[in-house]
Write a structure and sequence with these properties.
Length: 121
């Protein structure tokens, strides 16, 4: 993977647009959870890291169903971690958002399995 291929892939995948959307999500999480600016920076850095890994996996030719399965697993893990870490202390909105994350991750994982060669056999 060359730097040129990586730059072209980031442009094709709309990395700047996704980075702005992740900034909005990180800001919303910061406000809802009453985090400090450091919490925002850490959350946003993690989101950008995941986005960069996704672009790298596209450049390296990882099949789409594997990328979708990994995204599903990550979303399930984020939702489950939010449920476990904020259990009892979070408001109803944060709890509902965590449950929705887990459900979206399960849908993504099921869709990836449906598209996999394993399901075709």
């Amino acid at each position: 993977m060359s730097l040129r291929e990586f730059r072209e892939a980031t442009r094709e995948r709309g990395f700047v647009r996704h980075a702005l959307l992740w900034a909005v999500v990180a800001l919303a999480l910061t406000v809802v959870n009453d985090w400090s600016p450091v919490g925002f920076v850490l959350c946003y850095a993690a989101m950008l890291g995941v986005e960069l890994l996704f672009v790298a996996s596209v450049v390296l030719g990882v099949p789409g169903w594997i990328r979708q399965a990994v995204v599903g697993i990550c979303v399930i893990a984020m939702g489950a971690a939010a449920l476990l870490l904020d259990a009892g202390s979070a408001g109803l909105g944060a709890t509902v958002a965590s449950v929705v994350l887990v459900l979206l991750g399960l849908v993504s994982l099921a869709s990836a399995f449906r598209d996999s060669p394993v399901a075709a056999t």
